[in-house]
Amino acid sequence: MSLDDVVRNVKAKQRLWEKEIEQMRSCKFATICVHGAYTKEEAIRNNQGAVIEPVYTSTSQAFQDSDYLEAALAYKIPSWAYSRIANPTIGYLELMLAMLEAYGTKFKTTACCTSSGMAAIKAAAEPFLTEEKKGKKNIVSMAQVYGGTFQLFSERFAKERGIEVRWVENPGDIDEWKSKIDGDTCFAYGEIPSNPGIALFDIAKVAELAHAQGAPLITDATLSTPALCRPLAHGSDIVVHSVTKSMTWSGRAVGGVLVSKENIVSNILSDEAKQDFAGWVKLWPLRDSRACISPDNASRALDCLRVLPSTMNVLSENSMKVAEFLESHPGVEHVNYPGLASHSQHEIAKRYMRLADTDVNRYGHLLSFEVKGGHDAARKVLDRMRFVFGATDLGRIKSVAVIPAISTHQQQGEEGRKKARIPSNLVRLCVGAEDAEDLVNELKHALG
Ligand SMILES: Cc1ncc(COP(=O)(O)O)c(C=O)c1O
User: Fold this and answer.
1) Is 346 a residue whose pLDDT tops 70?
2) Are residues 164 and 273 in the same domain?
3) Which residues constitute the domain of residue 346?
4) What pLDDT is recorded for position 133?
5) I need a labelling partner for 99 at 20 to 30 A (CA). Which of 144, 222, 355, 421 fits?
6) Residue 228 C-alpha to ligand 1 middle, in angstroms?
7) For a substitution probing ligand 1, which of 121, 201, 244 has the most ligand atoms within 8 Å of its CB?
8) pLDDT digit string (tens) for 267-285?
9) Range 353-356, long-range pairs (CB < 8 A, 24+ positions)
10) Are both 301 and 210 inside the same structural domain?
11) Taking the model in full, what pTM does it have?
């Protein structure tokens, strides 16, 4: 068989599957979470009818002859020649996440899974930081980002590579974004909502400002998950997630993903890279540096994603009850939760955070609160918790709490924490699926 015949054969099979996936895309969000791209036909055609996606732990794929091998290695046919670059189990997860992020739109989206959320953020950001115009370029990001992202931008990009990082200190203020985004901006960056400050930004307005200057908007929607917010539909070009968090609420996997829509905005990237950014990252930059997720972790994420909307609904409902209780408690100075009317960006949250396929606002399960009495009082509250685990983790089915100033945001330093508005008496609480009354009693006890 000639190389051209191989390409024709494999592409014909691929087109069949693409048609099946397109049919799945017309289903409701919850159905896509259960099935993703793993259709009945795909199961029978390629996986001996296995009902659940098999975990392909093999490092590589064998080919029937040298023509197939050549076509695969030339990227002329979809394949999984080597698991650092592609693997069927990881592929099923990527297709599911691409479908979920595109839900409710006509966009074509692609996804690239990575070994962690940080790997996804780095993989999404680095292609824009090319060497030309060095010393002139800037990144515009909200200051209240996850501590790891803050360090990546300020240490690796600013200090080591000389890229100016313009921090937006009040992300709800569109004029501040406007004053910082200009023709030398490589990309704008925000979290919705942010960890641990629970700040939000107006995705559509920031995307518009960035696009006017030829720059893309990258949004980290880890805390929302696609069940509550899908930034691509609002104008973002790329969305990144720590798959480690609410998407894999079991707490049994570390992973990340970047998802992009077709033809993203950028005055830096080539046309090929803009057309399918996530696919391009997967086959080119990540081929060389590859921080790939393991097939085991991908299958664990798939298992949790099947019930993502109902899980996020329960966790959000619990969080709302806990936030209301904390707001009424005399031992608490302030509560940050986007579902509270007192949250300064509640209106933005109402616009962007809604349970898929409903008109119901749901605000996720991360909140933070400032304890009266300063840092020592906050430590006492943490130490008095019984079933709420004290750990630098979030997104779990179990409640987990931490003091960011001495943990997740310790390395950011006093000045960095001030910029990100993280006082030393702030307790971050990620609410689990325990009974809401038990949770309230637990906090009553912890607050003394
Ligand atoms: C909002 C957000 N983005 C990214 C990350 C990094 O994810 P990972 O720990 O999977 O690298 C985290 C981690 O807590 C996070 O909270």
Assistant:
1) yes
2) yes
3) 308-446
4) 58
5) 144
6) 17
7) 244
8) 999 999 999 999 999 999 9
9) 353/192, 353/193, 353/224, 353/228, 353/229, 354/228, 354/229, 355/227, 355/228, 355/309, 355/312, 355/313, 355/316, 356/29, 356/30, 356/103, 356/104, 356/226, 356/227, 356/228, 356/309
10) yes
11) 0.96
